[in-house]
Amino acid sequence: MLPAAHRMRRSADFERTVRSGARAGRSTLVVHLVTRTDPGPGPAVGFVVSKGVGNAVTRNRVKRRLRALTGERLGSLPSDADLVVRALAAAADADYGTLGRDLDGALRTASRRRAERAGSPAGPGR
Fold it and tell me: What secondary structure does DSSP assign to 47-105, as a single string?
């Protein structure tokens, strides 16, 4: 389970992360990763699971799986990171292992892109 201190709740945080974060996608999900400027208790994570994923039962199952998978990976996220995980329609039919592999791959790619962006002369807003 994802601890309450690490849950993203404000729509402004979701919007900032999705608009300015480094994005990486896989067949079942897309992640957006951004560095926060204000100090926080650690990484904050939000989830977007739209009706395109399925009915309420399916969406809640996907959210529970993504929360558990992300909770297992909190220690590997930078403490100043905000992360939004958006489930795609294929997530409804994916098993736990597939979601985990897709999340790991997307996090690696987003972290690399975030680092490249921070090191570029154009800065984070390029």
Answer: EE--GGG-SHHHHHHHHHHHHHHHHHTGGGS-TTEEEEEEE-GGGGT--HHHHHHHHHH
User: What pLDDT, in 10s, does the model give residues 12-52?
Assistant: 989 999 999 999 999 999 999 998 887 778 899 999 999 99
Residue 107's region, left for phi above 0, alpha for psi from -120 to 50, else beta, is: alpha
At 23 the three-state DSSP class reads strand
User: Angle of helix 96-119 relative to helix 56-72, nearest 10 degrees?
Assistant: 60
How many other β-carbons are positioned within 10 Å of the β-carbon of residue 120? 10
pTM (two decimals): 0.87
Which residues partner with 87 through β-bridges? 29
**Residue 29 belongs to what H/E stretch?**
strand 29-35
